Amino acid sequence: MSSEELHAIQLLGRVPYGRLATSMRALPILTVARHIVTDGRVVLRMHGGLGYHDACDGAVVAYGADNHNAATSAGSSDLWSVQFTGPAQIIEPTCAQRELFGPAPVDVNGEPFAPAYLRLDPHFVTVHTLGFHATPQIRQRSVI
């Protein structure tokens, strides 16, 4: 693995959720997924009731995550995002992998959560960072 890929994997481990992008019936879809990293691959848990996992099986997908919400709420000044692109495959995770995911949601859109798992084999990895090295100035306006 390249240093950029290792850095992306390390960053991905800092947040639990990301967004999966693919197409379904010729239309783009973007959905939230929980992820873990194992053996250099990204394993995703998502709700199976929507059928998105079927659309991803055997297809090239993109998966991205970032710290935008965490950084702004924690006061951190550096923002980052990572994107992994490659083929996805439906898998049955091991017991150890299931434990790494932690508790599952109770429901999705009012329906009981039905887990579906995908393994993403990243062929392309991108890391973007935004560094803010100075405290932003706050401008005050006079009210007349």
TrEMBL record:
Pfam families according to UniProt: Pyridox_ox_2
InterPro entries according to UniProt: Pyridox_Oxase-rel (IPR024747)
Name of the featured protein: Pyridoxamine 5'-phosphate oxidase family protein
Organism: Streptomyces poriferorum
